[in-house]
Specification:
The chain has one domain. Helix content is about 25%, strand content about 20%. The chain contains 13 helices and 17 strands. The strands form five sheets. The protein has a six-stranded parallel beta sheet, with helices on both faces. Strands 8-7-11-13 form a four-stranded parallel beta sheet, sandwiched between helices. The protein has a three-stranded mixed beta sheet with strand order 10-9-12, with helices on one face. It is globular.
Length: about 425
């Protein structure tokens, strides 16, 4: 991939979407930059090309719960509807590491106390062994606002003030960006949602201002362009993925890559009038009781773990959860072409593939030849597997028939 994309470009999001023997087809989002760009050294990060191997199974026992956006997941394809599944896994593990779109539900965020809210690109680095997670009792959150959504500023300020007055969250810094973000949706050939950002410099400038002011985490609200009423209607009927989720992920991946801080994003309600206000789809209902869709971000970032670079997994920084603690990675069974599933194979971590979380992809264990996948019917069964793994119970002992033990063949001497 490095050879194909050339110099001055770096992947911030990619997934294998097809495979036939020796050839794979990859969809990737690239950030392009000049050699003299002020953040060039950070954008050329080689984490993907130089992962660190998991050294041992450490405690506490952690699970990575992955719900990719933009591929019409049955659990997690709407506003926070993967939260019950995530919280169930959290009851079986010491910690669950998941990304914002799994638990963000507009003005609702019901993540369990031991669910660690980590942006997707940072989860990738965590699973590559290059990032540790240090628990935080509280973060000062800064907010950037896309000037295209200036008419909704009062709603954003109300969300911030409500978080301060009611939830006790420290989030008193806001900046208006110097130029519109220009976040626009696109559709990939696979049918997955994608997108582009036109004003990355304005975003980077705004984030830098917030961090210089002493913020520990960054949230943003932006207008997402290109969503039509037809797209909204088809998404609400479950026919296509959420149109805007991936361009939001691209934005936060860029921030994570450059600044290495907890971050998350929500869309301003620019297409509120297009949405079908039907009550027939409970998974979408959280969107209709919110205006700025931002409180879930503030609650998630309030205690999101700090991100600590790792150079040596034999001697990681103290009080950090690392990939050494990851005892399972949970992914939809047809979406195993992303980095988390590949990291599970690389480290020998059990990969729990959940069949009931259907997607538009077909990247299965068989398609990719993954040897470490444990296929389960649903998240109820996934939680049982996690509980067995955490407690050292052989999965074979919990299945019937049970295969008898045999002597190993020994070479003739």
């Amino acid at each position: 991939m490095r050879r194909l994309i050339g110099e001055g470009a770096s992947p911030i999001r990619f997934s294998i979407i097809d495979s036939d023997g020796d050839t794979v087809r990859v969809e990737a989002t690239l950030v392009r930059f000049s050699a003299d760009h002020r953040f060039a050294s950070r954008l050329v990060s080689a984490d993907l090309e130089n992962p660190l191997h998991k050294r041992y199974q450490a405690t506490p026992f952690a699970v990575a719960q992955i719900v990719p956006t933009g591929i019409r997941c049955d659990f997690g394809g709407y506003a926070g509807d993967a939260t019950p599944a995530t919280n169930l896994l959290a009851r079986a593990a010491d910690f669950v590491v998941t990304h914002p779109n799994a638990v963000n539900a507009s003005d609702i965020n019901e993540l369990a106390p031991n669910v660690l809210y980590v942006e997707g690109h940072s989860i990738d680095r965590f699973l590559l062994g290059r990032l540790g997670l240090r628990l935080s009792p509280g973060n000062r959150i800064g907010t950037f606002v896309d000037p295209t959504g200036r008419d909704h500023c009062d709603e954003v300020v109300h969300a911030v003030n409500a978080a301060r007055a009611v939830a006790g969250i420290t989030c008193d810094h806001l900046v208006m960006l110097d130029a519109p973000v220009g976040a626009r949706i696109e559709w990939a050939a696979s049918g997955s949602a994608s997108g582009i950002l036109e004003a990355t410099e304005a975003v980077l400038d705004g984030v830098a201002r917030l961090l210089d002011a002493g913020c520990d985490a960054v949230g943003g609200v932006s207008v997402i362009h290109g969503v039509t009423q037809e797209m909204c209607e088809r998404h609400m009927r479950g026919e296509i993925p959420n149109p805007s989720g991936v361009v939001e992920a691209i934005l936060t991946h860029l921030i994570s890559k450059v600044f290495n801080v907890p971050c998350a994003h929500s869309p301003l309600p620019y297409y509120q009038g297009m949405k079908i206000r039907s009550t027939s789809n409970p998974r979408a209902s959280a969107e209709f009781i919110s205006t700025p869709h931002y409180f879930s971000v503030l609650k998630g970032l309030a205690r999101a773990p700090r991100l600590v670079p790792i150079e040596d997994l034999d001697r990681p920084p103290v009080e950090c959860i690392t990939v050494n603690s990851v005892g399972a990675i949970v992914v939809p069974a047809t979406a195993l072409g992303g980095l988390p599933a590949l990291a599970a194979e690389f480290h020998g971590i059990p990969l729990i593939a959940v069949h009931s979380n259907h997607t538009i992809l077909g990247m299965t264990r068989e398609k990719l030849g993954l040897k470490n996948a444990i296929e389960v019917a649903n998240y109820l069964e996934a939680a049982g597997v996690v509980l067995a793994l955490k407690n050292g119970l052989s999965l074979e002992s919990l299945r019937r028939p049970i295969v008898p033990a045999e002597f190993m063949d020994t070479a003739a001497t």
